[in-house]
Specification:
Layout lengths: L22 E2 L10 H13 L12 H18 L6 E4 L2 H16 L5 E5 L4 H14 L2 E5 L9 H7 L4 E5 L13 H10 L3 E5 L11 H4 L3 E5 L10 E5 L25 H19 L2 H19 L4 E3 L10 E6 L4 H6 L4 E2 L5 E3 L2 E3 L2 H5 L4 H5 L1 E5 L6 H15 L1
Parallel strand pairs: 1-11, 3-4, 3-5, 5-6, 6-7
Antiparallel strand pairs: 2-8, 7-8, 9-10, 10-14, 12-13
Helix pairs in contact: 1-8, 2-8, 3-4, 9-13
């Protein structure tokens, strides 16, 4: 395999940012910038300084790069280039989708439906819509695997529902929601379906047509592009109220002079992701993930519990609780490993993950949880090192 800009398969190399450090198994938190993406950015830094809206020659290359980036991101998710709106973060894209749909609907008491394990960017925006605009918000429960039952959504929809927002893949457990089924139910009642696909895009195939999504969030730093660039897919014909007003950039939905360099970075990352998907990268990561799980279960018999679905999840994500040890203590005792827990620490007191709590896990098991998320530079050696570190820390 060669990358979009040439060069060997990156899994055969060590990422310069990871050299000499602990084994990195926190790819769901953020990804290292792919050197090929950085190379494209560096090539553009001088040549793309012009304003893409300028009519003179210094605007030509930035405008072309911006258009190409729209094409690249659109191709990755099965959209049209003019349906892609670049934003500065996934949270901003979510805000544009939710606030934009609610305000554009013009309903006196618009109804928004989401679910309990959503990212705070969705849940907090819903609360703001309720507080500032009088929206009604319904938060659907999830089952023990963290999945929404379509029948529960069907019962919650009413004539005032303007938007349903359900993530494609959970950031903690990797659980994959039945988006196509949920979208069909929303559309039958005249509502839009937004999908925060920050964790899914690039890890699994995502096609907005197959999903039935009207709005979909893509995040650069979850797929080997820098932080500070994201995108919202807005299906042709969907009307949104802008979040940023001004000069009419990005279909008039996100004013401000476009950052052509970061857009080009996201476009390059989208190309690389498409190549990885075609080359079987999800299967490679799933094999490594399952090997890690098998090793832990073998050396810690009866103590390792999977959190979330065994099959309907991202190929790179393993969330487990190990009996007898808290997640943050486990990782603190394994400095050779960089990973995450789902718990939060407030004034020295750890609280269970809201995601795992919503799934019905008791506090003891939720506080024991660790999330191990693999990525482009994960290797068999990494799995061996991580296994040894975790077993020693748990013993």
């Amino acid at each position: 395999m060669t990358g979009a800009t040439g060069g060997p398969r990156p899994q055969a190399l060590q990422h310069p940012g990871l050299a000499g450090g602990p084994v990195y198994l926190d790819y769901n938190a953020t990804t290292p910038v792919d050197p090929r993406v950085a190379e494209q950015m560096a090539a553009h830094l001088d040549g793309l300084f012009g304003n893409p809206s300028s009519g003179h020659r210094y605007g030509v290359r930035p405008r072309a790069a911006l258009g190409h980036a729209h094409e690249q991101v659109a191709a990755l998710i099965g959209a049209r280039p003019d349906e892609i709106v670049f934003t500065a973060s996934g949270s901003e894209a979510d805000l544009l989708a939710l606030r934009g749909a609610v305000l554009a609907a013009g309903r006196p008491r618009p109804h928004v439906i989401t679910q309990a394990t959503e990212h705070p960017a969705i849940l907090e925006t819903c609360q703001a819509l309720k507080r500032l605009y009088g929206a009604r918000v319904t938060v659907l429960p999830v089952d023990g695997d963290g999945l929404v039952d379509p029948a529960v959504l069907a019962a919650a929809l009413d004539e005032d529902t303007v938007l349903v927002s359900v993530m494609a893949a959970n950031n903690e457990t990797g659980a994959l929601q039945p988006i196509a089924d949920l979208a069909a139910l929303a559309h039958a009642r005249g509502a839009l379906l937004h999908c925060d696909a920050a964790q899914a895009v690039g890890k699994i195939g995502v096609d907005v047509g197959a999903l039935g999504a009207d709005l979909l969030t893509v995040v650069g730093h979850k797929m080997y592009a820098p932080k500070g660039i994201a995108a919202l897919y807005v299906r042709d014909g969907v009307i949104l109220e802008p979040v940023v007003y001004g000069g009419g950039q990005e279909r008039g939905l996100r004013a401000g002079t476009e950052n052509a360099v970061l857009a080009a970075a996201l476009g390059t990352a989208a190309d690389l992701a498409a190549r990885d998907l075609a080359d079987g990268e999800p299967a490679r990561l799933a094999a490594l993930r399952d090997d890690l799980h098998r090793r832990l279960a073998e050396y810690l018999p009866g103590r390792v519990h999977l959190n979330g679905p065994s099959r309907q999840r991202l190929p790179n994500t393993l969330n487990v609780s190990i009996d007898g040890v808290l997640g943050h203590d486990l990782l603190a005792s394994a400095p050779q490993l960089a990973a995450s827990t789902g718990s939060a620490c407030h004034s020295g007191t750890h609280t269970p993950s809201p995601v795992l709590t919503a799934m019905g896990l008791n506090p003891e098991r939720a506080l024991a949880a660790v999330r191990l998320s693999l990525g482009r530079w994960s290797t068999e050696t990494d799995i061996e090192t991580a296994t040894a570190a975790l077993i020693k820390a748990a013993s």
